[in-house]
Write a structure and sequence with these properties.
15 helices, alpha/beta, eight-stranded parallel barrel, 13 strands, three-stranded mixed β-sheet
């Protein structure tokens, strides 16, 4: 019996397993007008009335730009072995073109040096959704040129930090960038054009391939290059052939559209067929698939909750229960005849069902999909309505239970033969949660948004103990 299913057996991890936490630039840095930084699409979007909860923005966020030393000291106190953060493209290359702003690069140099001085491995994500606004004004991700601009940016950052950062990720969750940004419009830049979203998906794939090549040309050979995908676990409502077909089509739009070209050098033929009413994919040029299909050193998987789908009447206008925000426009091109359903079980503050079996299923799928490719869980976590008690502490037993369940699923996958090398908790601390503003708290560290004081939650102490010992404490342990 796998150890995660036997309560009498400690859930222990391999000695080299990497225990980390993750953040992204726009969600934590603030300082949006300092040292040459210019607006990204998220600056513009969050300042547009009605786009974010309460009109909240990342202008200050949690002021990590000025407080990074304290934040790194807190990571070290908790016992983290790694920290995954993203670079703000518009802080480094404000127009998305041309030479770098050295003050922007210097911030990341200081951050990396601080991490290394505390024995924490830095992992850099080049793109976590914050395209420079000038590139969006020129057409954004639906335009091919944006992929080439990304490669230039990757070269700049690789040259600046490649001597001291070994773990690199090109893109974070390109599905969100393409389909929430350009189809449903619930993310920046807020466009609602399904054809543009498919073009954006292809050019994000191209950016990944070109960026991976640029990084390798700029860095020592020891460094690793990966991508982080929020691949969906898509389940049919029933075994009816129509529901099975619906699940396959959503799987193509959620997963195959990215892992097809990245891992196998081809889009699924069924994706072309399903979207033929929208486009003939003439934006895929000769040689593109070879450029995209760069060898990877690892694959990052982000997981929160599974999806449950069925066939439906295309004329029905019931709200989509897909967990991706409310919009009159679907993030699923050419899939209006597919319904999403709430999966049963307890839910987080995001309304997402808690289901660790989906993480195990996802890991095992990619163990088969890309045999021999090391895997990292680059995001996994939960939002809860955390409060500081009268003693100044934050108890979050629900998050501890969530982490225990999902980390146990990771360990079970390792026992089943998966090569999972590490886990990055989302998120290190409460922060700006995109269109939800500051209303959803994912952090293991509580942030008082009035004072910006940081307070480790029970989950932070629990996770730190796991990181130091390589074993999961009982879910009730503090």
């Amino acid at each position: 019996m796998p150890d995660s299913e036997n309560p009498a057996t400690a859930v222990t991890f391999p000695p080299a397993f990497l225990w980390g936490a993750a953040t992204s630039a726009y969600q934590i840095e603030g300082a949006v007008r300092e040292d040459g930084r210019t607006p990204s699409i998220w600056d513009t979007f969050s300042h547009t009335p009605g786009k974010t909860a309460g009109g909240e923005t990342g202008d200050i966020a949690v002021d990590h730009y000025h407080r990074y030393r304290d934040d790194v000291a807190l990571m070290a106190e908790l016992g983290l072995g790694a920290y995954r953060f993203s670079i703000s493209w518009s802080r480094v290359q404000p127009t998305g073109r041309g030479p770098a702003v050295q003050k922007g690069l210097d911030f990341y140099r200081r951050l990396v040096d601080e991490l290394l001085s505390k024995g924490i491995k830095p992992a850099v994500t080049l793109y976590h959704w914050d395209l420079p606004q000038e590139l969006e004004d020129a057409g954004g991700w639906p335009e091919r040129d944006t992929a080439y601009r990304f490669a230039e940016y990757a070269q700049i950052v690789g040259e600046a930090l490649g001597d001291r950062v070994e773990q690199w990720i090109t893109l974070n969750e390109p599905w969100c960038s393409a389909f929430l940004g350009y189809a449903s419009g619930v993310h920046a830049p807020g466009r609602t054009d399904p054809v543009a979203s498919l073009r954006a998906a292809h050019h994000l794939n191209l950016a990944h391939g070109l960026g991976a090549s640029a990084l390798r040309s700029a860095m020592p050979a020891r460094n690793t290059v990966a991508v982080s995908l929020n691949s969906s676990v898509v389940r049919p409502l029933s075994q009816d052939p129509a529901d099975l077909d619906a699940a396959r089509r959503i799987d193509d739009l959620a997963n195959g559209v990215f892992h097809g070209p990245m891992l196998h050098g081809a889009y699924p033929e069924s994706l072309y067929v399903a979207t033929a009413s929208l486009t003939d994919w003439d934006f895929v040029l000769g040689g593109d698939l070879e450029l995209i299909n760069q060898p990877l050193d690892a694959l990052g998987l982000n997981y929160y909750t599974p999806s449950l789908v069925s066939a439906a009447d295309a004329s029905a206008k019931a709200p989509r229960a897909d967990g991706h925000g409310a919009s009159d426009h679907s993030p699923w091109p050419a899939a209006d005849d597919i319904a999403f359903h709430q999966t049963p079980g307890d839910r987080t503050e995001m309304g997402w069902t808690i289901d660790p079996t989906g993480l195990h299923e996802l890991i095992m799928r990619y163990t088969r999909e890309a045999p021999g490719l090391p895997l990292y869980i680059t995001e996994n976590g939960a939002a809860y309505d955390d409060k500081i008690d009268s003693d100044g502490r934050v108890h979050d037993p629900e998050r501890v239970a969530y982490l225990h369940g999902h980390l146990s699923a990771v360990r079970r996958a390792i026992a089943d033969g998966a090569d999972v090398r590490g886990y990055y908790l989302w998120s290190l601390m409460d922060n700006f949660e995109w269109s939800y503003g500051y209303g959803k708290r994912f952090g293991a560290v509580y942030v008082d948004y009035a004072t910006l004081e940081r307070t480790p939650k029970t989950s932070a102490r629990w996770y730190g103990r796991a990181a130091r010992t390589g074993a999961l404490p009982e879910a009730e342990a503090v």
